[in-house]
Amino acid sequence: MSLWADAAKVATGLNVVLLAVLLAVWVRNYLQFRSKHTLGLALFCVFLLAHNAVYFYIYLVDPMLSGWFSTAVPVLVWRFLMALAVFETLGLAVLAWTTLD
Amino acid sequence: MEAVLWYVLTGTRGGPNRARILRALDARPRNANQLAEDLDLDYKTIRHHLDVLTDNDVVQKSGDDYGAVYLPSERARSNWGTVEDVLEKVE
Question: Where does the chain cross the membrane (chain A) (predicted)?
Answer without folding.
Answer: 12-31, 38-60, 80-100
